[in-house]
Amino acid sequence: MRTRVEARDAVFGAHGVVADLSADAVWRPEERWTLTAGPRLSVSDRAFMRTYYSIDEEQSITSGLPTYSAPPGVRSYGAGSMVKYKWSDALATMMFVEYQRLGNTAVESPLIDERGSPNQLTAGVGMSVSFVVEN
Fold first, then answer.
1. What is the DSSP pairing of strand 119-129 with strand 91-102?
2. Helices (DSSP H) in 6-115: which residue ranges?
3. Of 20, 72, 86, 125, whose Cβ has the fewest other Cβ atoms within 10 Å?
4. What is the Cα–Cα distance from 67 to 59, expressed in whole angstroms?
5. pLDDT tens string 86-120
6. How would you label 54-92 residue by residue, b for 16+ Cβ within 10 Å and e otherwise?
7. What DSSP designation does 18 have?
8. Nearest to residue 8, comparing CAs of 51, 65, 37, 38?
9. Which of 73, 70, 72 is nearest to 55 (CA)?
């Protein structure tokens, strides 16, 4: 079992803090393979939600959407899974998929309600290279 908490604060171009929580069951059927799966939860402060989901008066006039002030709270919840193959001590590849359902504070935004979807799917592939730097 593996758990993780990540807290991020925007530095450029946005405002607000978001915290992502996850817990994964980890299964290693053999030394080279790792499979993980588990629940996800993301919570955000008022500044983050306003940056990404609120619509102020100027944006309302430009977009034609009604104004909306997103409160803080659950940004999303869902589940994720990853499979990793270790080619050697230095090289590994992985694939992941994650489903998130936006929380009510995001879903109630006209951006999502009228022009988006509360269901979010993310998939990806990656590669990691490990090396040792000797002094």
1. antiparallel
2. 46-53, 57-63, 104-107, 110-115
3. 125
4. 8
5. 999 999 999 999 999 999 989 999 999 888 999 99
6. bbeeeeeeeeebeebebebeebbbbebebebebeeeeeb
7. E
8. 51
9. 70
